[in-house]
Design brief:
The protein has 147 residues and is an alpha+beta fold. It has one domain. The chain is built from one helix and four strands. It has one helix spanning 9-85, and strands at 100-109, 115-123, 126-131, 136-140. A four-stranded antiparallel beta sheet has the order 1-2-3-4, covered by helices on one side. The relative contact order is 0.09. The mean pLDDT is 79.
Amino acid sequence: MTGSAVVSKDEACACIVSSLAWNLRLFYWGNEMTFQRTVIALLVLIVAGLGAIGYVEWKIAVQARTLKAFVEGYVFNEAVLACEQAKSATPFKWNGGKSTSVIGLNSVKLDKYTVSASYTLVADSVYCDYDPIKRTAGIGSSFLERE
């Protein structure tokens, strides 16, 4: 046999053990890299998910503000008219009042199925709560006097 080398049994075992150790080392590093890549991919997915949740929450908040502004604009004229016509010891004068402001649309959850909405106006320290559902106004000079 030309070109063949005679290898002792010890050398062959050492070569096999060395080769096996190298393969195990590569296998170990491969698993570690796979684990690291998996953790990084999960972190990227978590960050992307949180970003998507934030975006959806922002879009819903913008739509809610738009809807609230639309409802307040729709109810405003009715509220002023009902508050000026409401019977009270302290008259409510929106037109001609020195200090007027709109507190806005508020809601109170009375029980599990009932939500009471009110639109609050203030004119010269006299508060008026207008109920857009019942179309009635209640006047009081402080929160405790109002219904």
